[in-house]
Amino acid sequence: MSEEKSERHVLAVLVDNEAGVLARVVGLFSGRGYNIESLTVAEVDHAEHTSRITVATSGTPMVIAQIKAQLERLVPVHKVVDLTVQAPSVEREMALVKVAGTGEKRVEALRLSDAFRARVIDTTHTSFIFEVTGTPEKIDAFVGLMRGLGLVDVTRTGVVSIARGPEAM
Amino acid sequence: MAAREMTGAEIVVKALIDQGVEVIFGYPGGAVLPIYDALFKQNDIEHILVRHEQGAVHAAEGYARSTGKPGVVLVTSGPGATNAVTGLTDALMDSIPLVCLTGQVATHLIGTDAFQECDTVGITRPCTKHNWLVNSADELARVMHESFHVATHGRPGPVVIDIPKNVQFQTAEYRTPAQVSHKTYRPQVKGDMSAINRAVDLIAAAKKPVFYTGGGVINSGPMASQLLRQFVKLTGYPITSTLMGLGAYPAADPQWLGMLGMHGTYEANNAMHDSDLIICVGARFDDRVTGRLDAFAPHSKKIHIDIDASSINKNVHVDVPIIGDCAHVLEDMIRVWKSKVSQPDKSALSTWWKQIETWRGRKSLAYVKSDTSIKPQYAVERLYELTKDRKTFITTEVGQHQMWAAQHYHFEEPNRWMTSGGLGTMGYGLPAAIGTQVAHRDALVIDIAGEASILMNMQEMSTAVQFMLPVKIFILNNEYMGMVRQWQELLHGGRYSHSYSEALPDFVKLAEAYGGHGIRATHPDELDAKIMEMIETPGPVIFDCVVEKMENCFPMIPSGAAHNEMILGDDPEGATVTEAGKMLV
Q: Contact, B359 vs B266, CB < 8 A?
């Protein structure tokens, strides 16, 4: 068991949007010692009061199966899909990245942002806020490049993911 | 015309009545006064006033486990709720259906650190199957009925409903159970037929099979025990059980190997270790059962029937998982077995039984008898002999006495054995006995206790006296926290750090102080007569059975060892605890 390699999986969890449901999910992870790499949550169906939680986690295949089973056991959880194994899926994350500077560095930051299709959503004479969307790796790369160009602040949404093809989760 | 509006408190009581609740265990306080007022005005539900909220929850557990019905608890906010936490955790670990109602400060005071406020749903979230904070009386009837559904369906467990005091005064329309159904919670009870087919083929082909059964069989109901007996008889295979599953299969039957695990029998553990097929029914491969995981039943295939999918492949990889209720799955298995005209491999089975008989011949539960002092095993044996022909229910506390009870008291029926397995809660036994006695007024209910454990919820003796519940507390008094002392002897060089029970009360006088009857036995010759005196006493009894102080509980699989590396009573040097094993509990 212990020789099995740890893998990253992205799980989509459809839950009742009721008080405490996020605490149940997060508490399950912390209480049982599972890892959360990122977590996003928002209501997806207002009429049905359902929210979708996307959680990126890591563990051996046995641990991942256990996480899925434990999540399914929670009473307000409707459905859990392991998007990493059950379907080819797409993943996106958004970041807002604040870069401060003047002169050559400022120009270079703007030039690189173009290569990443990042949008400038706020600017002053000494700063930019970039909005960048992509896979977590792309955002890592962009933030890494900005580090040498006056990066002062960054906020990320965490990944959201959805299966390819015509079916719902 | 709209139905008559009721107050929240009245809705609570009406919902309990409609759910068939006959008795609740509780303790009043400021935040539940309206509910207590509603209880005052009715005669359908009996209320058992405990002396500590932990006692209320364990009593409800005893009630639930001995009847198969959910136990109901009513406590106030703040300390009422926090005192219930140990019992709720105990019920979660042992899958006991409970509905626990807690009072809460008024909704406008929540979050202000009001008097006797605590975040009850936050605190109880990880120790309940589900919980609710009811913000309005309009939700109350629905939540009450849903809570019984959740507590009793799927893998049973405790639920908490936190009810703010102003909600208890608000008025709303009542809804009956028939008008409420849970939106989504529908656990699977029927097993997958293709998995059942594969399982039956494996069972028929096995050469060294063993049934390993657990509390899930008891929880599934009496039908599951009947079907288990039928299937085990059809196959002729040996059967063992966890602590929680005792009684599902009759101990007097020759196919019964006794309990398995850390203090299980030599034959049960060796049969598991050498088996080529383990048929796990409603058990969860817990660490007390498996011992060292990488050496657990190394040559066996495993079939696992469990209603909780998260129990499958959690600790041990299994070959054929079957998610479903034990009774449903066993029924299907028996049908498939018969339709395939399956036959066990007679010659392999006879070789297997010969091997098991050799292990059985080792008599691993034997102990050295004494003419001068009462051996704890002897005390349990005599208790068994003198009570087995009555309608007897046994509860226990936690420690050596619990294991001796499991080893030397033999159960023929399910629901007769109430013990704290998963959480291992000292102080469980007396309140559990009270809850059991409430459900079975004419039965003999005995709490086999230790002198340390019993003091953890001793105050409940007062409850027993008040409600004329004739529970018998049979204390195996060795003046030590015996299991702690045993581990200190085996693992810590005999340095008995704080495990001696100094300054014990005089239990006979203590019984009298509570208004019960006290008995003390110190010599084996007087034991039988005194046990008979206990049985024949009409009220609650504390029996102080003064036993051999340094007796250890064997056989034992030391922590970190495998099933075939047991320490036996007559060969205590037989196995040693490794450094890695010392890290384990």
A: yes
Contact across the interface for B313 and A62, Cβ inside 8 Å:
yes
Q: Is B207 within 8 Å of chain A by CB?
A: no
Q: A165 vs chain B: nearest CA distance in angstroms?
A: 27
Q: Do A66 and B183 touch (CB under 8 A)?
A: no
Q: Which sign does the torsion angle of CA B575, B576, B579, B580 carry?
A: positive
Sort out which chain B residues have CB atoms less than 8 A from A73's CB and list them.
Answer: 155, 308-310
Domains of chain B: residue spans and CATH: 5-179 (3.40.50.970), 193-360 (3.40.50.1220), 376-546 (3.40.50.970)
Into how many domains does chain A fold?
2
- Residue B584 CB contacts under 8 Å (≥ 6 apart), including other chains: B287, B559, B560
Q: Provide the CATH number for the domain around residue A127.
A: 3.30.70.1150
Q: Domain holding A30: CATH number? A: 3.30.70.260
Asked if A79 has any chain B CB less than 8 Å from its own CB, the reply is no
Chain B contact present for A133, CB below 8 A: no
Phi, psi of B493 (to 5 degrees): 65, 25
Distance from the B57 Cα atom to the nearest Cα atom in chain A, whole angstroms: 22
**B247-290 pLDDT, tens per residue?**
999 999 999 999 999 999 999 999 999 999 999 999 999 999 99
Residue B325 and residue B307: Cα distance in Å, rounded? 5
- The pLDDT, as a whole number, for residue B572 is 65
Tens of pLDDT along B452-504? Answer: 999 999 999 999 999 999 999 999 999 999 999 999 999 899 999 999 999 99
